[in-house]
Automatic annotation (TrEMBL):
Name under which the protein is recorded: 6-bladed beta-propeller protein
PROSITE patterns in alphabetical order: PROKAR_LIPOPROTEIN
Source organism, top-level taxon: Bacteria
Amino acid sequence: MVNYTVKIYLNLLLIVVLTSCTNQNKKPQESFSVNIVKDGVISISDVLKSDKIPNDILYDLKYVELKGYKKKENPISSRTVKIVGDRIYIFDDIVSELYCFDFQGAMDYYIDFNKFKTKKDEKIKATSFFIKNGKVNIVDSEKRLLLTFNKTDLIDSKEFSFWATEVEAVDINSLIIFQGYVNNMFGSPYYFIKTDSNFTVKNKYFAVPDTELKASLKIGTTQNHIFKTDKDINMLLDQENSIYKYPDFVAPAYKIDFVNYNINLLSATSLDLPSPSMYDYARVKTFWESNSNVIVSYSLRKELGYIIHNKTNNKAFNSYLIKSLNDMLLFGVLGVHNNSFFTLIENDQITEVLKLKKEGRGFLKEYLDNREPASSNPVFVFFRLRDF
């Protein structure tokens, strides 16, 4: 009886060992396309869980070295990059400078707005810019001025009656303006307005139009921006992470639902809950859309993540924190041109990539293989995404 019991015990032990060895040989399953997109809602149930993104998702990469562009040593430097016609414009609102390049990377001209003054002999503080009829237009939000440059020459200056933080030209005679506080009152809602070229208001767009209080709560706490591609203008517009499209604003074109990380300020206020800043909540930062894909960046816990949505199969990747060279490129998308996303790789980023070439040089491999050893120019990168 004892021998029989021992035999059973040994057989059970052998089964456990074999099962353990079998499980160890199994590779962990890679997480691909786990987030389903339905009716324009990109739902990410667990923001902190990153999907594994295929290394070959980037393709059709093209590189342009920007000769003469020098990044200022400013840790909070904020760049806005736009492509209009056959020119690349790089604007830094912290140092108040703008560079213009052709598509071969040669600098066409450079403007230091610190060297210009208003008619009242006040220093200009450029806060945003747009291109209209080949001219550079600079907004000075503090002084409520629009200044027009023909390359390096200041040719016109206009005043407007409201506080505008961003302006974008939508056709020959119309502008879309992201306006700050209404009636100069702190705490009043943010909204977008449409004006003619003389700043006569033609229309106003609210996310919640019934009361100013609700509008303030819904859109007054978010960083709203105007994102213009070759064909469309998209606008981030409310604290529920909705993206609206010009010109209708009837319903969000997309909504990023972070589920447990979406904090509804209206509900929190009505329930007398503490400030949403005391919770973990995700906020959309940028939104770029090509014919096939959408790339969204967001912030959570003072870190950045991004979402890639494939419009063909209605699936999405979510990536939180930088984990690969591809991530570094996708994190910093600055726009869309001819159905390609683009970004700017600074010299310090290239240095980091060079340190990693023993592990594989990723998306910069072709460029680095042909880069001149003495080159110190930043690199402008165009890329597309494969279907997944």
